């Protein structure tokens, strides 16, 4: 949920709740005030009833006084002379509907005779007045609050516009581009301080990144030369006939170790290039043609392991960097061949938006979470542990979906091309 939305919801909730409470309390206060007026009026009517009975000597007194209804009930004796006020309803014959009313019930002596007197006055007009008063007061208040809410919304959006611009600049910032972080122009001090801090941080990040990148590239390239020399010397020594068996075995171990170190160095260099988006040129690539070419390229290794390759290839065209796609296909083939057993099989299925490599293996199911981590490999593997990590990195850079599954004793790697 966005900050503005959360703030407006909280503000609207508090305002609405406050209006309900204020409206209820205001209505109840008016109700109490009106009831008090009606009760005073009922008491005055009771006095008039007594005076009329005393002066006119008519018992009981007439049932109509102004806008009230008077009821009498003769009793044996006075038991309670307290005045009881309460609400009730009655049928108004003139208006032909039920109305609410306030009544006064008491016991009095009229010309020496005990009576229970019930004086009732309609509250309909009073309640209508209360509703009008509440509406007259609350409606302008609601309109005022709505105007304030709109003004507040507009002002907040305008005040937070520099923050949105700053956020967009942060999202657009690319460490590989020469363009520096775009500052924003604002009069709000907090946003200006945040902008200055971001400019300083991004400049520091770009400077550190360039130094690390330069060091990594230089170190990797410098390592390639001595490694090539070591491999050449070891290869020359292995071809000498004067070496003892023990010396040859030691040299072979050294040759394998340096070869592995060379592959590791090349893989790390490749990962650095992929991570830094250095392979960005894109073109349309026919995957069907490319996979057929790679089958021929790896044919010698396939025949050496006596592997059965079953390829079901549909026409598929992707818009991507050719180097990255070739790295992806090469790693899939290398992984399927290296981790297979002699006489095993490799199944390749290519559809318009999906590529699937399946291979048999002596290894059981792998951890689907850790399998794509760098340097994660089986103990029996002689690889660098970077092949699947490179595969995942390529898919991430191309926005492809990479999945691993173990089905029918086959390791299955599926790639979904979202821009095929």
Task: Report on this structure.
This protein is of the alpha+beta class and about 425 residues long. It has three domains: about 5-155, no CATH class; about 190-275; about 285-415, 2-Layer Sandwich (Heat Shock Protein 90), CATH 3.30.565. Helix content is about 55%, strand content about 20%. It has nine helices and twelve strands. The protein has helices at about 5-55, 125-160, 160-170, 190-240, 245-275, 285-295, 300-305, 320-340, 385-395, and strands at about 65, 70-75, 85-90, 95-110, 115-120, 285, 310-315, 315-320, 345-350, 355-360, 400-405, 410-415. The strands form three sheets. Strands 1-2-5-4-3 form a five-stranded antiparallel beta sheet. Strands 7-9-10-12-11 form a five-stranded mixed beta sheet. α5 runs parallel beside α9 and α6 crosses α8. The longest helix is centred in the N-terminal third of the chain and has 54 residues, at about 5-55.
